[in-house]
Amino acid sequence: MSLVSRVLPRLSRGLNHTAYRPITSFLLVSTPHTFHTTYMMSSPAKRKAETQASPAKAKKPKVQIPEYHLTPSRRDEDGEIVWPAPKAQIERAREIIRECASAQKPTLILPDKDADGLSSGAILHHTLTSLGLSSDLISVYFPPKGSNVHDESTRSTVTELSPAYIFVLDQGSRKTGPFYDASHKCLIIDHHFAEEGGFPEGAEFVTAHDCPPVATSALLTYAICLPLHQDLEDKISWLAALGTHGDLGNTLKWQPPFPDMTATFKRNPKKAINDAVGLVNAPRRSAAYNVQAAWEAVISVEGPQPLLSNEKLRDAQFEVKQETEKWSHVPPKFSRDATIAILTIRSAAQVHPVVATRWAGFLKSDKLEIVMCANEGYLPGKVNFSCRVAKHARARIGDDRVNIIQTLESIVADDPDLRARLGESFARGHKEASGGIINVQEWEEFKKLMGVGENSRKKAETKTPEKKKPAQKNTLQNYFVKAS
Ligand SMILES: [Mn+2]
């Protein structure tokens, strides 16, 4: 799952996508490389109002986030904007795709399971078949619930399929050995942060990560593939929009350097695209984890409209909605020092990130720093937990900033044995949106260390968070830390 596959460090932030939706798209570029470009400013109108009003009653300036597309771009030595990825990488990716199509050999696509990953996969699939690769030769694989593409389960599947070409899309990358031992070509198309050399051995890559405003994987795949065949435009442009709205939210302005998608949105209304994003993202959160159904839906249609009435997608969306509602009213317990609120749920659906996010925006306590939702029912024998920074603690700056990973680590710092048993999937993700997957036994020990329920001052609150308006469900926080 993404939590494991999207290896640290990646983003420096993750926030409640519901409450902070306008920010989330911008956060995508708030990486260690580009964070200096993050600035906040008060609106000119507001500033004007302030100077005219009585200085004694100056209002707090409203924080405004610049539009995503205005993020300063990288330029090459000729002053040309480098976007959505370095030219040489894009050219090389095209070469590999063309070569793959003409080779007529077994080909494997490993797309991520969200709207961006699936769209990226569908764009590549349409491109390869348009270029003449028989669809019989193309396999598409999704690791089962709780696994990721770097797991042993994927390795054995890849070995069995023994593809000559492997395309890894939107998965985040990590430094690993090759996907399997036999000779093959592997191309990674991505937009996540990767450490220097943080790719599987022998793999080639094209990444949007270092070319702000960071494009989505679907948009990057689109930019690579579009010139490869004259018939592709209609087939893939709506998919580029689907994936991009999936990751960046539906308020994105399609302005330079983003391509002009006016014609695409004329054929495929934004409303349909946005509704399709929610539907396509639902199966991976449902108990059945039927990502395959989402893929089949996306690859088989020529636009978003038929997705809106796809029953499998609608059922999954309904289930996830019900589960979220059901588990949003569990009263929290608090750690000994009252800095962590813990919500314990038991759902086979991946609703723990949403529940944590909801409560994080709701609980009011000056002491509270972290809201944790622990799901004891997602994977047998495991506890999957998600942490979010409590709303009131989000304004902290400098050394006072809440660092969830650090806090989680500090709790077990004096117990190296427990820390070792918590394993690699503990405290993963981002400082502001972390989580983990641990065994039940270790979870119990961890709870003891936190002193859950020992805080007498803070009793369970009687109210529960209001259900927010259904907003875009797949933005930064769940996108990057989906499984946390
Ligand atoms: Mn993506």
What are its keywords?
484 residues; alpha/beta; inorganic pyrophosphatase (n-terminal core); Diaminopimelate Epimerase, Chain A, domain 1; 2 domains; 6-stranded mixed beta sheet; 5-stranded parallel beta sheet; 37% helix; 13% strand; disordered N terminus; binds manganese (II) ion; DDH_dom; SSDNA_exonuclease_RecJ; DHH phosphoesterase; DHH_sf
What's the layout of helices and strands?
Layout: H1 2-5, H2 21-27, E1 41-42, H3 44-52, E2 63-64, E3 74-75, E4 81-82, H4 87-103, E5 107-111, H5 115-130, E6 138-140, H6 152-161, E7 165-169, E8 185-190, E9 204-207, H7 217-225, H8 232-248, H9 262-267, H10 270-281, H11 291-300, H12 305-308, H13 311-327, E10 333-334, E11 340-345, H14 352-360, E12 370-375, E13 382-389, H15 404-411, H16 416-422, E14 428-429, E15 433-439, H17 440-450, H18 476-481
Parallel strand pairs: 5-6, 5-7, 7-8, 8-9, 11-12
Antiparallel strand pairs: 1-2, 3-4, 10-11, 12-13, 13-15, 14-15
Helix pairs in contact: 4-5, 5-7, 5-8, 5-11, 7-8, 8-10, 10-13
The protein binds manganese (II) ion.
The site of manganese (II) ion has 6 residues, from loops.
